[in-house]
Every structure is written in structure tokens, then in C-alpha cells.
Design a protein that fits this description.
Length: 517
């Protein structure tokens, strides 16, 4: 949606690799603008972006497979440097007359790489051997004419190659993942040294240009935004508010499944502090009534999603249905929703609750669709959003309903809300809140005997879930110090009525998920 025009651009063609999105991110970390495009984009269209360089991503296919994804062959003749990564290298070699074959031994994970030439791609790396991250079954066996080898591994004789004249480069390993030593330097060498990009792209530029773009798209119309208090929707809303002021209406729907004090805090920030136009709808009763007696997790999500759309649409009609709908979609969501139509779309199922149906009457504005979570956090700070919002843990659209196992009852809701508050508060006190991905309490219908007052009685079991994760796709249980767990447990049993036991969830994802429902 928001495109940077003035800055030098690196185009990444997406062949569906797990790390494709990371490449664009790494390029932006060099302060150069980067965009991920479908692998089959015609060369003429790519040229419209005026790229200073092109990167071909990795991908799951083998170049010899029927229907293996190929790029427009003209990509290699655009007179801009090209870097092929993994499948990208193999494809480049294959299309330019080299030979790719099955490796005798597949290489996965950390692999020692011997650097043979450090004059360009490996510039500044003064070690003969570094560890790189490999993930492949095929290798380049014979190089195309005019190519030479600049690094190798034990099982991969051409682990990095180049054609100096044509400024074509390829690496079999993944410089974009953190496990590759000097990976950032390798990307920077390509982007800054080889493509000669000027490192001018910064978050502040993003804001100015995004505002200009939003104004030119929305013109005199109005926009509406479902505000959740999460960092994505908040940042999108503040950015659009900066662009069009009170022609943006924010709708904050309380579905009765929010965290403790959440409605008050969100309103205080957006209405009082940021002076934004926020309509608050307390629809708790409607949601809770529909959830009565429902125990199946998917059914709960479905009901909440449907009801959310109903409430939101009603409010939109009441305010004269603005033409534009602002959404805080980020790049990983874009990939999940297959908008680049790349094979990467199949990797992750996504959580669409709170999303709008395809027949939505709105025109969609997604001002963050180029960014990743941590980039959004940077942007949020540049926009002056308070730290409570910037650092907030992700919170699922269906709220506490996915943290209550079985039926959502007022009692379980109270326990989940109060106990989660204690978990978060104790982590903040211990300085651990910002070090973990999510932290909350779970409650179900299981009960255990304890002493309530002076008597033995049955009470609820609360499960504390604290996980570390990079992106929510995989997660590990956080190794929280025993003293902190002890405080959490004591406080929950003392302060939350009806709880006798506290357990700590020590399952990672996979096989478990982060949320229990
Ligand atoms: P799971 O439970 O699948 O969660 O391991 C991965 C991440 O996604 C969040 N999550 C959701 N977010 N609607 C959302 O907006 C949902 O229905 C939903 N379910 C899970 C979860 O909190 C975690 O960060």
C-alpha cells in the first residue's frame, strides 16, 4: 500500500522460502528500502520499481521438478546486480546454462563455509572459515559460463559464486538467518557495496511518505478502524489519524473478553492523550450471551468473529459508513494471506477472527503492510505511542475466550482475568515482561482439593503459560526463576477467589500451541 519512491530499492522475488520475508527485513536493516514481489513478476513490472538490485529468495522446489517456479529470464539482463539465495542460486545456475543436481549428502543447519575470495560479497570478513546456515538437497554441480566459485563447504563445492562481469551472485546458504555468521555483513555488502544503494531509508521517512500516500489515497473521504489496543491496530490508527485527523473514526469494541482494566486504559490513551475520535461499544452482554453453553474452541472463535463483524458493521452504518477501512495488517499476515500469490502462503494457517468477510463494503487501507512486528514497534515510538502499547504482548482477537477451556462462564472469566493480571504484574516487577512473548493464565473446569478458608474444598486449577518466541510460529516455555513462579502461585491462590491450585505449562509449540483453545 505505502510505497517508498525516493529511496533506493532492492526487490526480493519470493520463491516461497520460509525466510523470504526475512531478506527484505535484513535489507531494511541496512537502511535501504526493500519489497517482496511474486517470483513470476514480469521484468518490465520489476523495472517500474526502479530497483538497484534484485534478490532471488530460497524456496522448497527443485529446479528440475515439473512446475518448478521460474522467474522471467530477462531478470538476469536488467543490468542490475542479482543475488540468488539457495533455490535462487540454483535457479540462476540452471537458467544460465549450469547444472544442478541432487547433493550426495543433504546439508541442514550450521555448516562450515570456506571463503575463497573476500573482495566483494564477503568483503570485510577476515576469517577463512565461518559458520553458515544451510537447508538444501540440491547443489550447483557445474557453473554457468563466466561464473567462479568464491566459497565452498565440504558437501557443496560451489557454496557461493559470482559472475563479476554481469554482477550476478549466488549463495547456497542463508545469509538472512541469524545463525549465519556475518550474514548481515554479506547482505550489506550486496546492497551497499555491490548495488551501491544509498542507506537513506529510515522510519521517519516512512512516516512522512506514508502520511502523504494516505492523504492521496483517501482524499476527502472518511475512514474507520477497529481499534483493539494492540500495537498493530493502534499504530495504523495513529498514522492515519496524523494524515486525515478526525475524518478517521476508531471503534473500540468490548466483547467482554478483554484483560483487566483494558477498556479504561485504551480509552485513556486514545481519547484523552492522543485526542482521537473513538467510539466505545460495550457489547459484552451480547457476546457472552451467544457464548453460553458453547464448549468447542472453533465454535467459540466462530461466534466471536461473527458477532464482532455484526457489531462493527452496525457502528459503521450509524456513522454513515465511511468509505475506507484501516487495518493493521503486517507483512507476515500479507504472506499468510497469499497476497503475493507465492508458495510461502501455504506455510501457516492464520487466525482470522475479527477479520472482515470478503464481501466487505469498505475499501481497505493497510498502511503497515510492508512492515514486521519490531519495525511497527519502532514506528509506534516515532509516532509517540506510549510504551504500554509499544511493548504490549500480542493478545488474540477472541481474547480470554481462547484461554478459558470449555464454556466461558462469568466465574471462569473472572478467574482468568484476575490471574492473568497477576502473572503480568509479577513479570513486570521482576523485569521479565519484555523478555517473553506472552504470559497469561488459563482456566478450565478441572478442580482440585485445597484449603479455602479453614475447610477442605474444591477449587479451580489455574495453569500459568509463559512462553518465549520470535514470531509466534514456534514457542518454548519460559524458564522463569522459581521465586517468581512462587510469588505468582501464592498471589493467585490468595487473591483470586475459588482457585486452589496453580500449575505451570511446560509444553513447547509444537506439539502444543501457545493458546490452549
Ligand atoms: P497459537 O495458539 O496458534 O498462537 O500457538 C500463535 C499466536 O497467535 C495468537 N492467536 C490469535 N490471534 N486470533 C488472533 O488474533 C486468534 O484467534 C488467535 N489464536 C491465537 C496467539 O496469542 C499467539 O501469539
Amino acid at each position: 500500500m505505502i510505497e517508498e519512491q525516493k529511496h533506493d530499492t532492492i526487490v526480493v522475488l519470493d520463491f516461497g522460502g520460509q525466510y523470504s520475508h526475512l531478506i527484505t527485513r535484513r535489507v531494511r536493516e541496512c537502511n535501504v528500502y526493500s519489497e517482496l514481489l511474486p517470483y513470476n513478476m514480469p521484468a518490465e513490472k520489476i523495472l517500474e520499481k526502479d530497483p538497484k538490485g534484485i534478490i532471488l529468495s530460497g524456496g522448497p522446489a527443485s529446479v528440475y521438478e515439473k512446475d518448478a517456479p521460474v522467474c522471467d529470464p530477462k531478470v538476469f539482463d536488467l543490468k542490475v546486480p542479482v543475488l540468488g539465495i539457495c533455490y535462487g542460486l540454483q535457479l540462476m545456475a540452471h537458467m544460465l546454462g549450469g547444472k544442478v543436481s541432487r547433493a550426495r549428502k543433504r546439508e541442514f543447519g550450521k555448516t562450515e563455509l570456506e571463503i575463497l575470495d573476500n573482495s566483494d560479497l564477503f568483503f570485510g570478513i577476515n576469517r577463512k572459515k565461518i559458520f553458515c546456515w544451510m537447508s538444501h538437497s540440491d547443489i550447483v554441480e557445474t557453473l554457468p559460463q563466466g561464473f567462479e566459485t568464491i566459497a565452498r563447504t565440504e558437501n557443496c563445492p560451489h557454496a557461493a559464486v559470482r559472475s563479476k562481469d554481469r554482477k550476478l551472485f549466488g549463495v547456497q546458504f542463508h545469509p538472512e538467518v541469524v545463525h549465519t555468521e556475518f550474514g548481515k555483513q554479506i547482505i550489506e555488502n550486496f546492497v551497499i557495496r555491490i548495488c551501491k544503494c544509498r542507506p537513506t531509508w529510515k522510519m521517519e521517512n516512512f512516516v512522512d511518505e506514508a502520511i502523504r500516500k494516505i492523504r492521496s489515497v483517501i482524499k476527502d473521504d472518511r475512514a474507520i478502524c477497529a481499534l483493539s489496543g494492540g500495537v498493530d491496530s493502534s499504530t495504523a490508527a495513529v498514522l492515519v489519524h496524523k494524515a486525515i485527523g478526525d475524518r478517521l473514526v476508531c471503534v473500540f469494541i468490548n466483547h467482554g473478553l478483554l484483560r483487566k482494566n483494558e477498556p479504561e486504559e485504551v480509552l485513556k490513551i486514545f481519547r484523552d492523550k492522543l485526542k482521537m475520535n473513538v467510539i466505545y461499544v460495550d457489547a459484552s452482554e451480547r457476546f457472552l450471551k451467544r457464548l453460553k453453553g458453547v464448549t468447542d474452541p472453533e465454535e467459540k472463535r466462530k461466534i466471536i468473529g461473527e458477532e464482532f463483524i455484526k457489531v462493527f458493521t452496525e457502528v459503521a452504518e450509524k456513522v454513515g459508513r465511511p468509505k475506507w477501512l484501516v487495518q493493521g495488517t503486517l507483512y507476515p499476515d500479507v504472506i499468510e494471506s497469499a497476497r503475493t500469490e507465492s508458495p510461502a502462503s501455504r506455510i501457516k494457517t492464520h487466525h482470522n477472527v475479527g477479520g472482515l468477510p470478503p464481501w466487505t463494503p469498505f475499501k481497505i487501507l493497510e498502511p503497515l503492510r510492508m512492515l514486521y512486528k519490531d519495525e511497527v514497534r519502532k514506528l509506534a515510538r516515532v509516532l509517540g505511542l506510549p510504551e504500554e502499547i509499544v511493548k504490549r504482548h500480542p493478545f488474540p482477537g477472541p481474547g480470554l475466550a481462547v484461554r478459558i477451556i470449555g464454556e466461558v462462564t462469568p466465574e471462569k472469566l473472572r478467574i482468568c482475568r484476575e490471574a492473568s493480571y497477576i502473572v503480568e504484574e509479577e513479570l513486570k516487577k521482576a523485569g521479565l515482561y519484555d523478555k517473553v512473548w506472552q504470559a497469561f493464565a488459563i482456566v478450565g473446569d478441572d478442580k482440585a482439593v485445597g484449603i479455602l478458608g479453614d475447610q477442605r474444598a474444591l477449587g479451580h486449577i489455574v495453569i500459568v503459560r509463559i512462553v518465549t518466541s520470535l514470531d509466534g510460529m514456534t514457542a518454548d516455555w519460559a524458564r522463569i526463576p522459581y521465586e517468581v513462579l512462587e510469588r505468582i502461585s501464592n498471589r493467585i491462590t490468595n487473591e483470586v477467589e475459588g482457585v486452589t491450585w496453580v500449575a505451570y505449562a511446560i509444553s513447547s509449540k509444537p506439539p502444543a500451541t501457545i493458546e490452549p483453545c
